[in-house]
Structure formats: structure tokens, C-alpha cells
Amino acid sequence: MPTEALKNTARPTGRPVSIDADAVAALALRLFAERGYEQTSMEDIAREARIGRKSLYRHFASKADLVWGGTGPVIEASRHALASPPPAEGTDTDVLAGLREAIIVGAAAIPDLAVTRGRLRLIAEHPDLMSRSYESLGSQREQARSYLTARGVPEPTARYLCAALIGATFEAWMQWAAGDEPDPAPYLRAAVGVLSVGGR
Amino acid sequence: MPTEALKNTARPTGRPVSIDADAVAALALRLFAERGYEQTSMEDIAREARIGRKSLYRHFASKADLVWGGTGPVIEASRHALASPPPAEGTDTDVLAGLREAIIVGAAAIPDLAVTRGRLRLIAEHPDLMSRSYESLGSQREQARSYLTARGVPEPTARYLCAALIGATFEAWMQWAAGDEPDPAPYLRAAVGVLSVGGR
DNA sequence: CCAGCTTATGACACCCCGTGTCATTATGTA
DNA sequence: TACATAATGACACGGGGTGTCATAAGCTGG
């Protein structure tokens, strides 16, 4: 999600990228941990990364993106898990179970959980970062919604279900991050367990 | 919620407030509607309200507070509805129904729905305003959580339930605001209907 | 090897949000 | 009338985010 203009997509001509966005994000995370989030300015990060402030903004749309950017893979993984199974005819077994499993799969795709935990803890501490959750999780919400509607869940119910799902799973991630348990799956399972499609 | 320092709380001495915060907020809403949210600077609002920019900030903590401030009464009303009935012994009837009714009562306490609809539509259009929902609804979340735990809902479940509740009801408000139906209650009912305390 | 193209880069300037300070003014109470 | 309290607004400042522009770096075709 680091705003990467055209990183891996075949670029036939032009000057290639010379800045390692992931390395810069990692550096920023380190600086945030050392000096604090709001005590570290974008100029500080740029200076430390030996690049210009404007170049920093070219790779990360905002300061918050330096933190939230790393969550891209998780969302992408659960998106993939949600997109794969085609909808069967009629009302299939349990749509909630499908959502749950996709989210678990997405979580399992995270390379290093320790970094993610640090990221989430940093987010939890700062309202400014916290509030970005709505937009950062937007694609996941959209993905879940199409999953539900494709399986016959009526429109308004699907919307509310997705909104509730995002809220609950985000809370689950936060609870996991606050503790020391290695596996986030139980938290996510419990969060999804709070939902019901039947309208009670 | 307009940051009011000491508006109605008996102030024995000192110069009384001479700025009508509600009027300023209404003016700001009008300017936002006319010129657009980000096209209207705090200086514009202050100039139009015939006050200084700093004085504006003394009444509203942020630009977003000019919009979100008006939601205070709703949250306060549902808080009151949630606080009134004392928990009975053992597992009482239906905690979700209690939550649902409190939210409906809160919605019914809104003086003029038209203004609220405009406000929510404005919020829907601007990610910056949208993202404030998390913090703005924080008190409501906390209130619902204590309601649930006081009625025997175990801790982690209560957390997830509240997170889901906030997400779903906010989505319900947004759906209501996007349409023309006069009563938000059906939307809210449907949103709460997506939850379940039983863990499926 | 050179010419020309594309694109990243960084310097500069700018707007605006939000905050801190401070002198001034207005309103109450003793 | 003196005093305390607090609102007001002027000024300055840090910092986020954006636009512009000249320059440098790499690729590709001749």
C-alpha cells in the first residue's frame, strides 16, 4: 500500500526507483518507537533516510501511511481468500464461516507477527493513527460485502454485517496486539462469533 | 460537545461567554455546504463569524469538531437510555434488545433530523471527517460495554460486540442519511439485528 | 557512442491546521 | 472602587501536505 507508483509492474522505460520504500517504512517505525510518533516529523524521517521530504511523500501519501502501509499484505491475503471460492447455488452452508476462515487465512499470511504487533500497538496509542482504520480497512469491507451479496445475503444486511465485521475484527487485532499470545486466530474467531446473518 | 469550557456550569465570576457556539457551528455548516469543506478554512469561518481564529479554536477543538460537535446530544441521549435500567439478577431477557432500544431512544431525541442528515452527508463525503467516527463514538462504545458487562456478558465478547455495534449502527446512520426516509429507527434496528451474543 | 525520452529526485514556495504566548478588554464580586 | 476571572484577538511558530520546476539518472533506439 506504500503508494508505490509502478514498482513491480513492468516499466519499459524511464529512470527506475532508487528508494527502498520498505526500508524507509522500517526506519520510520524505528524512529517512532524511539522518539515517539508526533515527536518525529516527516523532515526527521527524510533526513535520516537521506532523501528529500518531497520524495518521502512520493512514496507515502501521509505520515500515517508509513505505519498503516504495512497492513497491505494482510488485507490482500484475506481478499484473495475471499475471492477464490465461487458461490454455490442456493443458500450454501455458512457465509459467516467463510468470512471467518478468509480472515484467519489472511492473518496467517503475515510474514512477521512481531512487527505487526508493534505497528498495531503504535496505532493504538495515537488517535490520529487509530482513526485511519476506517479508510485503511475500506477495501477489506468492500471485499467482504461482495462476498456476502454473491451468496444471496440481501443488500442492507450485507452492509451492516460488513461494518460490524470490520469493527469487531479490528478490535480483535487490537486485543491481540495488546497481549502476548502468538496466534491472533482465536481473537478473530471470537470476534466473528459475535455476528449473525439471520437477523437474530 | 463543542468543547464548551464552562457554558452552563455555574460560573460565579469572570467575563461571561459572548460567542454563541451553536450559531457559529451552524454558520460553519452553511459555509461548508456552500463552498465545500476543505475549500473553507478556519480563517474564513472566523472572519464570517466576526471573531478571531483563535477564539474559534477556543470553542471548537478542531475543524472536524465543527461538524461532529452536533452529534453530542444523540450520544448523550443513548447514554442516558443505557444507564437507567439497573441489571436484574441472573441472565435477563435480551441484552441486545436493550441496546437496540437505547439507540432508538437516542435517535428519537434528536431535535431536527434534517440538520443531522446534512451533517452526516457532509461526513460521508470527506474521509477526514469520516475517520473521526472512531473517536467521536468512543463514549458510546464505552457506555455500551459497561451495559453489557453489567449484565453478565463476558469481557472479550462484550468488547467485540460493542465494536461491531458501533460499526453497524454508524453504517445504519449513513444509510439513513443517504436516503430520504424520515425515521432512522428501521435502519438502526436492522443494524443491531446483525449481532448475536451467543457466539453464533 | 550519442541523442532523446521517461521518470525520479529534491529545492523552493505555499496554504492551512493547530498551539502557545501575551497584552487587552469586559464582566462579575467584595 | 478595587480586584479577580476569563474571553478576546494579535502575533508567531511548528508541522503536514501540495504544487511547481529545474535537474539528474537511467533506459532505448539509432
Which features characterize this protein?
globular, 63% helix, mainly alpha, disordered N terminus, DNA-binding, homodimer
Structure overview:
The structure is a homodimer. With about 200 residues, chain A is mainly α. The first copy, chain A, is built from 12 helices and no strands. In chain A, helix 11 packs antiparallel against helix 12 (about 185-190). The first copy, chain A, is globular, with a radius of gyration of 19 Å. The first copy, chain A, starts with 20 loop residues before the first helix and ends in an 8-residue tail after the last helix. The model of chain A is unreliable at about 1-10 (pLDDT under 50). The interface between A and B is medium-sized, with 34 and 34 residues. Chain A binds a DNA duplex (30 and 30 nucleotides) through helix 3. Chains A, B: Keywords: DNA-binding, Transcription, Transcription regulation. Chains A, B: Pfam families: TetR_C_14, TetR_N. Chains A, B: This is TetR/AcrR family transcriptional regulator.
